[in-house]
Amino acid sequence: MIDLIQTRRDLHQIPELALNETETHDYLLQVIAQLPQTWLTVRTIKVLPTAILVHITGSQPTQTLGYRADMDALPVDETTELPFSSTHAGISHACGHDLHMTVALGILAHFATHQPKDNLIFFFQPAEESHSGGKIAYDADVFTGDWHIDELYGLHDRPNLPAGTIATRIGTLFAGTSEITIDFTGRTGHAAFPQAANDMVVAASAFVTQLQSIVARNIAPTASAVITIGKFEAGTIRNVIAGAAHLEGTLRGFTQEDIAYLKQRIQELASGIAKSYNCDVHVTLEQGGYYPVVNDAAITQDFITYMQTAPVDFERTEPVMTGEDFGYLLHHIPGTMFWLGVGDTTELHTSTFNPDEHALQPAVNAMIGYLTHRMQKGSRS
Ligand SMILES: CC(=O)N[C@@H](CCC[C@H](N)C(=O)O)C(=O)O
User: Fold this and answer.
1) Which of 6, 10, 150, 336 has the most CB atoms less than 10 A away?
2) Ligand 1 close to Cβ of residue 286 (< 6 A)
3) In the chain, which segments carry CATH 3.30.70.360?
4) What does pTM read for this prediction?
């Protein structure tokens, strides 16, 4: 058994950005090394050096169940003032992946001491917030041969859902996303002589404002989409007109068709802005992006039925516009993603995000119970 709260706090103190999760990787390996190794095989992979895979060999295996936990943090400067706050300046676990890893370790620790009937694979996955670590691993054929997974599970923590409550739905849970970057090039000049310059603060601001009309006027009101520009950089000083602007954002929709249409309209608006403001506008659209998270109908129905009778609080939920590269994995491997309530705190991705640790033990217990039930039930039923 591991001390869930201490483990979560240790991980919370060492947040690292996507693909740089080296300290986290070493910490996880050290915790895993302290578990009984009888049925365990630990594997690292070249394509994703900070990832860790753990295989637990079942006693009478007829299938392999997978559990994934993401490892990366965000460039958000934590302001919780918790005694175990981030020790890495400007980076924090503002999305709660420290909890995700801790729950995975809790489940892993149980099955390392109680041999499961079927095989289990734990995937500690780097790069969920960007760079799609799940896709990198899947496309590199990591889940083949002995590492093939028949069904896959994973959670995301959710503020404003009571701590320890589990929530999910059949079908689409999270949106598909795509990152966008837009660079504007005009002409710098003196603040007093705008006629001799070409101000990219004005052009980029007009573009950001017009972007919102895409969601309002090009996507059906009965569907949903989001375009958010989270980063807007321009200029150097108050009295110099900015000759360039750089925007970074993300777009979201529930279907690949809506996402493709958002991309097309963004390109069209950018061409319009380039003409009206007589500047150069370069749009970079992420190819592929994150797939919507779509929960398998049969597996998720069984998950819901189990959770409704298990000693855990369960709620059905509606889809939301968060993204998750678990969507790519679920596109290839059937399974279920679910929310874990972490109580009354500020939203995900905020500097004051402070999830309730009372969520940890119920999540571990629920998943140990569910995976055991799934093994008794047999494959694909
Ligand atoms: C759960 C969560 O917050 N996930 C992130 C995933 C980011 C997806 C991608 N890099 C993008 O921003 O388009 C989210 O922001 O929803």
Assistant:
1) 336
2) no
3) 176-285
4) 0.92
